[in-house]
Amino acid sequence: MFRPVVVVLIVMAAFFAAAASAEGFAVGTPDRASDLPRAAGHDDVRAAHRRSALAQRNTHARPDFAYYMTKSDALDEVRAIVDANPRTMRLDAVTAEQDGYASELLVVTVEPNGLDTPPKRGREKTRVLYNYGEHGRELITVQVAVQLLRELAKGVEHASTLSHETIGQSATAAALVDSIVKIVPMENVNGREKVEGGEWCERKNGRGVDTNRNWAVDWGVKEADFDPYEEYPGKAPFSEPEARMLRSLVEEFKPHAWVNVHSGMEAMFMPYDHKASEPRGEGAEAMRSILRDLNEFHCGGRCATGGGGKGVGYLAHGTATDWVYEKGGVPVAFTWEIYGDTQAHYMDCFRMFNPIGEDHHDAVVKNWVAAGVSALPMLARHPDLPTASPPRGIGVGGSGGSGSVAVGGDDGEEEEEEPAG
Q1: Could you tell me which of 61, 204, 341, 421 has the fewest CB atoms within 10 Å of its CB?
Q2: pLDDT at 223
Q3: Could you give the CA distance from residue 204 to residue 221 in angstroms, rounded to a whole number?
Q4: Around Cβ 412, how many Cβ atoms within 10 Å?
Q5: In angstroms, what is the C-alpha Rg of the chain?
Q6: What is the rounded average pLDDT for all residues in the chain?
Q7: 3-state DSSP call for residue 341?
Q8: In DSSP terms, which residues pair with 305 in a beta bridge?
Q9: DSSP letter at 370?
Q10: Distance, CA of 319 to CA of 136 (rounded, Å)
Q11: Buried b vs exposed e over 123-156: b needs ≥16 C-beta within 10 Å?
């Protein structure tokens, strides 16, 4: 999600074009970008990022495919994992086309206690949707998705050991048994193909649209430093097959929780992206509580947390997470940013969005697979979920005991918040 220092001021357009040409990137303004409505006001934090990144050395980093998977290797591995685990996993392949442009979406359904088995507690299982690979250059997110599938394939007993020790294996196992997890391992398959073809800074889909700006909440609004090369939102909301397929998945699956996984910084966001405010109420407090503990457990307290529009330093319009929360009615909606090299040169995109070195890669993957498992028992904190429980410990309510964070506002600070969507 994070729009990095790749964004360049208009006065630097000639320099950017020359640099991009040397790197083999396509630069240009997509059709109708100038017709989009403009937002009133914007945060200029990105200007400082740009100036800083211009001074960095471009290492021209590239993925080592000895441990990074290519697009085809990753999707083949997903199919192989599912084929080997028919009792607990199912694969659906969805295709969509618009104006001659087509894309495919692989969706893996995982029920750790067995497909179509009844819940052990309550009337229904908790439905969770994890989305990875929305931006092509964020290879590390797909690595996490595939490894999460590998770990879930090993069964409840094994997977329950992956969550943070403070949560507890028994609470994690109970959550796994009563969950249906759908995983989209690579949303943007066409954009990923362009990246592997040498366009290492490409985040958009196969025809130049940022699918995380193509959703219908505040679609088309652009900030004063809007960069069509980075975040062109398309000609209309849901003009892109990728966004339409995901919307249909949300509407049909009706998840209780959505997690959109990105890279470019270290952050764990909740709504809203398009305005500098957050929802309020008991459900919003539960989301904040979950993010605070996940930040402590899996980000060393480094991650920015809270509303994306408040925490990232700029507003993003037409995002998936805002639509899923506001229009899709999903009670828990998160965007996780799992890695970012803030010292990378603005054209050194592989380094900026992906860890370099096998040990570093493996550590990031292991940590964020564990975060994906840790989140499952924490969802019981939310009052609108099937497993909702009163506060009684870190795995459920965050009661504020040793190692826990109580549900509530940040340090008693009063903030202007919006009603829940």
Answers
A1: 61
A2: 84
A3: 17
A4: 6
A5: 20
A6: 85
A7: coil
A8: 268
A9: H
A10: 16
A11: eebbbbbbbbbbbbbbbbbbbbbbbbbebbbebb
Q: CB-hemisphere CA count at 13 Å for 359? A: 0
> How far is 183 from 368, CA to CA, in rounded Å?
14
Instruction: Give the C-alpha distances (Å, rounded to integers) separating 84 from 71, 90, 100, 329.
Output: 20, 10, 35, 34
Alpha-carbon distance 341 to 193, whole Å? 23
For the chain, report the end-to-end CA distance as a whole number of angstroms: 21
Phi/psi class of residue 31: alpha, beta or left (left: φ > 0; alpha: ψ in -120 to 50)?
Answer: beta
Q: How far apart are CA 393 and CA 386, in angstroms?
A: 18
Angle at which helix 282-298 crosses helix 358-378, to 10 degrees, equals 150
Nearest to 383 by CA among 241, 273, 287: 287
123: Cβ–Cβ under 8 A, 6 or more apart, which residues?
386
Q: What is the maximal distance between C-alpha atoms in the chain? A: 62
Nearest to 297 by CA among 372, 230, 348: 372
CB count, 10 Å around CB of 391?
18
Q: Which of 366, 132, 100 is nearest to 260 (CA)?
A: 132
pLDDT at 16 over 90: no
Half-sphere exposure of 383 (CA within 13 A, CB side): 6
Residue 65 bridge partners (DSSP): none
Report the pLDDT value the prediction gives residue 311, as an integer from 0 to 100: 79
Question: Could you report the per-residue pLDDT of 302-319, keeping only the tens digit for each?
Answer: 999 999 998 777 899 999
How far CA 4 is from CA of 196, 320, 335, 346, in Å, comes to: 20, 19, 16, 8
Q: Which two tokens stand for residue 156?
A: 């409840």
Query: Token match 């879930």: residue?
Result: 152
Q: Grade residue 81 by pLDDT with cuts at 50, 70 and 90.
A: very high
- pLDDT, tens only, 124-170: 999 999 999 999 999 999 999 999 999 999 999 999 999 999 999 99
Q: How far apart are CA 411 and CA 395, in angstroms?
A: 21
Q: How far is CA 268 from CA 66, 106, 146, 336, 338, in A?
A: 29, 25, 20, 4, 8
Q: How many CA atoms lie within 13 A of 346 on its CB side?
A: 23
pLDDT of residue 38: 39
DSSP conformational letter for 378 = H
By mean pLDDT, which of 27-41, 190-204, 212-226 is the weakest? 27-41
